[in-house]
Amino acid sequence: MDIIKNIEKVESLNTNLAGKDFLLTWEKSEAELETILTVAQILKDLRSKNISPKVFQSGLAISQFRDNSTRTRFSYASAANLLGLEVQDLDESKSQIAHGETVRETANMISFLADFIGIRDDMFLGEGNKYMREVGQALDDGYSQGVLPVRPGIINLQCDIDHPTQSMADLLHLKNEFGSLENLKGKKIVMSWAYSPSYGKPLSVPQGIIGLMSRFGMDIELAYPEGYELIPEVEQLAAKQAKASGGSFHISHSMKDALKDADIVYPKSWAPYHIMQKRTELLKADNHQGLNALEKSCLAENAHHTDWEYDDEKMKLTKNSDALYMHCLPADISGVSCEKGEVASDVFDKYRTKTYMEAGYKPYIIAAMMFTQKFKNPAKVLNEIMTKNNKRVLY
Amino acid sequence: MDIIKNIEKVESLNTNLAGKDFLLTWEKSEAELETILTVAQILKDLRSKNISPKVFQSGLAISQFRDNSTRTRFSYASAANLLGLEVQDLDESKSQIAHGETVRETANMISFLADFIGIRDDMFLGEGNKYMREVGQALDDGYSQGVLPVRPGIINLQCDIDHPTQSMADLLHLKNEFGSLENLKGKKIVMSWAYSPSYGKPLSVPQGIIGLMSRFGMDIELAYPEGYELIPEVEQLAAKQAKASGGSFHISHSMKDALKDADIVYPKSWAPYHIMQKRTELLKADNHQGLNALEKSCLAENAHHTDWEYDDEKMKLTKNSDALYMHCLPADISGVSCEKGEVASDVFDKYRTKTYMEAGYKPYIIAAMMFTQKFKNPAKVLNEIMTKNNKRVLY
Amino acid sequence: MDIIKNIEKVESLNTNLAGKDFLLTWEKSEAELETILTVAQILKDLRSKNISPKVFQSGLAISQFRDNSTRTRFSYASAANLLGLEVQDLDESKSQIAHGETVRETANMISFLADFIGIRDDMFLGEGNKYMREVGQALDDGYSQGVLPVRPGIINLQCDIDHPTQSMADLLHLKNEFGSLENLKGKKIVMSWAYSPSYGKPLSVPQGIIGLMSRFGMDIELAYPEGYELIPEVEQLAAKQAKASGGSFHISHSMKDALKDADIVYPKSWAPYHIMQKRTELLKADNHQGLNALEKSCLAENAHHTDWEYDDEKMKLTKNSDALYMHCLPADISGVSCEKGEVASDVFDKYRTKTYMEAGYKPYIIAAMMFTQKFKNPAKVLNEIMTKNNKRVLY
Question: Would you place residue C98 in the very low, low, confident or very high pLDDT band (cuts 50, 70, 90)?
């Protein structure tokens, strides 16, 4: 029932994402984003009804993780497997890439039978997203020159700028929690920095959140201690988008002020933009002493803001003392994963199951990105899947 | 023919293992164990007749190896692949788990599209099996709260207490060697400690053997030098079970005495229980000096027992000088893999092929554990597989 | 159309490669080699027409890389996946193999549900190919003794002597570039040493090239600085084969002389045979000091031959100043991957796309080796695949 309605929705959105990489949410139209959300929901519902949306008999989904990952790694593998593809990991430590091989060459060499390449590259400001585009350019060339039979689609599994599979999973969670995208209009979401004893957490999650949620008429409150700014261009973009979509965007330097009457809160630590810039320079220069000194001073600065913990008292400031708590996980939970962290353990406990639900959308978001990159008319294919009614568990 | 008879056997056993983790053989009834043995045999026979028992269109079988493995890793991968699942390895060194993430969270995060989780965790006494149950509890919660669409089944791929995929493969080997489970009644099996120049081998194999073989009316002789005891509770359990099943259980401190008239011998090294306890404490305390000292003293103690080698002379003590030799492999073979070891090379040579056959059951045992965890009525599904008659090699 | 003609070609070649390992191209007849080339082309064409040549419902394709690999690793994975098999990597660092387990045992333990084992072992002269045969012998025994239900086929993914998946991909590229195998008769191919600032590159590529191209009536010019010889037996074999096939074989010590009127050039660095012998001894003896000294002296010797770079001036010596440039990739490109290397960047740029095309045949060559190892009558199976017309992308 819902599935059929949702397929009709996909049909009516009438978008064409085929052949286009997914690198930044703000490069997609609202209709395109909604198409992906809807296809993700359909794929999730199909699977729970034991209908298999396997659309490939064979093919590789390549993953390249230039930073650690558990959640996203499993989400990507799950998505690929659901659609019939096999993950092949490009592990740079095992390969000859370290020996000076160009991006162009490697991109082609691994792609002869590939349908997708998922890339995580979030360590260096100014590098990750650029790298993905470089790979994309190489694949374009390879395809146009007849080297590759298919142009593999690229999926951004987190870069220096955005983390679209996370933010889209978060948005689908919000859509389901509040009933519709329409219902998100006028809702207040607080993307807040939070204290963590660790250092160097990427900016892509908060940037992804303000860059995406500002598309749907929400009132966005970005809160952080002075000096903990995000990439300025992304903050400006979010402000512009919020205005255009009928919402608002505001930056605050008090967690408490920001939380007032919030519908949704996303307290999460990150390293300040100017620190990340410095860190990138030091990493490039392989300056270990400088990195250690930076870490030390950054942690010392962080220590002034241990009160940026989302606790019961702060929760009481939010709407009905019950704003929806969100996190990309793992959270730094006070008294659990660290002495003092992003969130008090009783608050986290209250919303734990919801954060797990939130995470559970990611495999389907990735699968939907693959699906819509592959098929010009996803609604038609989804209808055929429904008609065919192949079982996932066969008996 | 045999397949159909065996399916009828499964039907008549009329057990329901669906939704239940496989953690210890002694938590299963004899009928349940026999169901798994029979399904394993059927799956093996189907495959040799080129009939594919693929029951999944997609789905992940997660593996988590907290200790090294070749055999079990390949067995698990083979089983998963046979049934249509893709292995995804949870490699803790590559993930963020090391950074203080809770078991509960990880268990859910990796399981959104998983059907099974196979776990090896055999390094710490009192920890491995406990960890599996913790994962199981987390999955129960996740499933009941709607986080997981399916409750993935857990398969113990070796813990501190038991090694059920090994012991069940061993039992299926015995069943085939002696013609039936019935025929094992009254047979004498000697689970004997044997000398090895290495140290710290887990207790789970000998414990698994006495914990399982004592269910089927066999006369169990557990032999080890004084001080090389297993976990006391497991020895007691084996004694109780042996009595209940009409067999016997006896502990001896002379390999030669133990071997007299044996039908089956399983000479294998292990570290004494009290050493493993001490080792666990030292490992937890990260006490390298203490560990080195313990290893040294333990090897020195071992060196007093180099005569606990299963050689030609000792083989002559067994029934018809030809007891069935068993080993989980790799064995420490004197003059081959070490100067002096668990077994003389001529004796091993004589039984090598049989030990390979023994090992060959493990993939099917794991597949049968998966199969029976998934389907309430495995006989019905097996009949449908026979009817469908899909080929593994299609042409 | 072409596919059907090619299937008829396979039929008319009437070879039977089933059950035979692929270890050295010179162990196969010309008709057998042509069968593999033709099947590879068919599989490539089928895939570009979205017809799935999946012939396995399940089964493992094991890979064992005893040296680094990106290209071949992905090619092997792509081939296995195309035919319906799942790659399972035997990673010796993760396994217990390091602890003295015999080759025989491991070969059997991993193969209970395997259809193929692909092995790269190219570090030690006199060892790699031997190791593959040892594995093969173990599998023969295991199969004949009933341990294994199927004898997995072995595919040489590069050894100390040959690199058949590379040379066969190169040959298929040549066949397509020149229109037919027939057209290669009388063509001049120059397999030339080229300068590289690195050291210890294996001999298997140049040996593979002269060992294979000498079968098809080509005029082979092997060029290297004095002292940079290949394994003498392989040079002799190439000479003999060239003569028998109506071509010629000549060794030259001047790159310029060699290039005159060449139709095809393959400039690539390698370490001299006598150095590799010495290196093997030192590696076996774990003599780090000796290895360092050898590397130093070898690089110093190399430095006398920086003029062995294939550049624009040298290209002008070849036929119509436009000999087909080939390389197994990655090439050492002057000014790109190193200061001074095997090839000038403008020359490489001119032929880059062609080298990518060349590499693109490897997955299909591997798939064809698997296919012909499995099926006695590959033409019949290919016809059935055409008739069935299963889609790779289903919708």
Answer: very low
* Calpha distance B208→A159 (Å, rounded): 48
The residues with which C266 forms a beta bridge, in sequence order, are C191
Q: What is the pLDDT of residue C198?
A: 87
Query: Which residues of chain C make contact with A95, given a CB cutoff of 8 A?
Result: 68-70, 73
Q: What does chain B come to in residues?
A: 395
Average pLDDT over residues B366-382: 98
Chain C nearest CA to A34, separation (Å) = 22
pLDDT tens readout for residues A179-234: 999 999 999 999 999 999 988 899 999 999 999 999 999 999 999 999 999 999 99
Give the per-residue SS3 of B305-351: HCCCCECHHHHCCCHHHCCEECCCCCCCEECCCECCCCECHHHHHHH
Residue-wise pLDDT tens digits, C262-290: 999 999 999 999 999 999 999 888 899 99
CB contact under 8 A, A95 and C73: yes
- How far is C381 from chain B, CA to nearest CA, in Å? 6
Which residue is closest to B391 within chain C, CA to CA?
C57
**Confidence at residue B1, expressed as pLDDT on a 0 to 100 scale:** 53
Chain A CB contacts of B107 below 8 Å? none
Report CA-CA distances (Å) from B333 to B189, B341, B343, C101, C276: 21, 5, 5, 10, 34
In chain C, the largest separation of any two C-alpha atoms, in whole Å, equals 62
- Whether the Cβ atoms of residue A382 and residue A39 lie closer than 8 Å to each other: yes
Q: Are A96 and C395 an interchain contact pair (Cβ–Cβ within 8 Å)?
A: no
- The pTM of this model reads 0.97
B214-254 tens-digit pLDDT:
999 999 999 999 999 999 999 999 999 999 999 999 999 99
pLDDT band, residue B284 (cuts 50/70/90): confident
| Other Cβ atoms within 10 Å of B145 Cβ, number | 14
Question: Which CB contacts under 8 angstroms, 24+ apart, belong to A31-34?
Answer: A33/A168, A33/A171, A33/A212, A33/A215, A34/A9, A34/A181
Side chain identity at residue B346, one-letter code: D
Q: Output Rg (C-alpha) for chain B, integer angstroms.
A: 21
Per-domain boundaries in chain A? 2-162+362-388, 166-359
Residue C30, min C-alpha distance to chain B (Å): 26
Residue A95: pLDDT over 60: no
Count residue pairs from A and C with Cβ separation < 8 A: 109
Could you tell me which chains touch chain A, where touching means 3 or more CB pairs under 8 A?
Answer: B, C
Which other chains touch chain C, taking contact as 3+ CB pairs less than 8 Å apart? A, B
Q: What is the pLDDT of residue B95?
A: 56
Q: In CATH, what number does B2-162+362-388 get? A: 3.40.50.1370
- Please report, in angstroms and rounded to a whole number, the separation of the first and last CA atoms in chain C: 23
**CATH number belonging to domain B165-359:** 3.40.50.1370
Q: Is A88 on the interface with B (CB under 8 A)?
A: no
- Residue A236: CB atoms within 10 Å: 11
pLDDT of residue B101 exceeding 90: no
ipTM score of the complex? 0.95
List the single residue in A70, A353, A392 with the smallest CB-CB distance to B106.
A70
What count of other Cβ atoms lies within 10 Å of the Cβ of residue B176?
14
Q: Residue C223 — very low, low, confident or very high, per pLDDT cuts 50/70/90?
A: very high
Burial A130-149 (b: 16+ CB within 10 A, else e): ebbeebbebbebbbeeebbb
Domain C166-359 has CATH 3.40.50.1370: yes
For residue B394, which residues of chain C lie inside 8 Å, CB to CB? 54-57, 84
Please report, as a single letter, which amino acid is at residue B96.
Q
Chain B, residues 355-394, CB within 8 A of chain C, namely 356-357, 359-360, 362-363, 390-394
What is d(CA C82, CA B357) in angstroms, rounded to the nearest whole number?
A: 31
**pLDDT of C325 above 80:** yes
